[in-house]
Design a protein that fits this description.
- This protein has about 180 residues and is an alpha+beta fold.
- It has a single domain (about 10-170), classed as Nuclear Transport Factor 2, Chain: A.
- It has helices at about 10-20, 25-40, 55-60, 60-75, 155-170; strands spanning about 100-110, 115-120, 125-135, 140-145, 150.
- A hairpin with a 2-residue loop joins strand 3 and strand 4.
- The longest helix is centred in the C-terminal third of the chain and has 20 residues, at about 155-170.
- It is globular.
């Protein structure tokens, strides 16, 4: 009989993996890597405004991507109206210079949720909080909060979409049970 190595994963190993995924250093490094990608996507020479689609796909949660898609659909259906995204949540502004972050602090909530606070250096310094979720085997952004301007992006999108929901109920009447976009 040929001796083999036991490669089974026991309950103790699974607990260790879950514990390691919530390691603040791992989450901090993930956010630093994300913002290195953001800095690359927003070169200092501002020829063309970068698309945030690839950043969203790579670094944002499924819920975030769904909300952004719903907002963009609403905006497309209301041509001529003011668009929701007049500021870019990745850089907390419309214009950009050299992008970097500093003073990264991680607050682990549980094995699947963490808040990350940092200073975003763009044309000015902005305090930012990211609500991170562990999804698809990696830490992803579930919400962007501009702490300096007290702007919660997810809450704002939900409120913006809810306005549409109320307007729809007023037009159709109370017989509507549930409205989904």
């Amino acid at each position: 009989m040929i001796p083999t190595e036991d490669t089974s994963v026991g309950a103790d190993s699974i607990g260790a993996v879950e514990q390691n995924q919530a390691d603040p250093a791992l989450i901090e490094n993930r956010v630093k890597a994300i913002y290195e990608s953001v800095a690359t996507a927003y070169p200092e020479i501002q020829d063309i405004t970068p698309s945030t689609d690839s950043l969203d796909l790579a670094y944002c949660s499924g819920e975030w991507q769904t909300l952004v898609e719903m907002v963009n659909t609403k905006d497309a259906n209301e041509m001529g109206a003011e668009r929701f995204f007049d500021t870019d949540y990745w850089i907390m502004g419309q214009d950009w210079g050299k992008i970097s972050i500093s003073d990264v602090k991680v607050d682990v909530k549980d094995n699947n949720h963490a808040d990350v606070n940092f200073i975003l250096h763009n044309l000015s310094d902005t305090k930012v909080k990211l609500e991170m979720v562990f999804e698809r085997g990696e830490w992803l952004i579930g919400n962007f909060i501009d702490v300096s301007r007290d702007h919660n992006w997810k809450a704002s999108m939900l409120k913006y979409l809810e306005k549409d929901n109320k307007k729809t109920k007023e037009l159709v009447g109370e017989e509507i049970i549930e409205y989904k976009q």
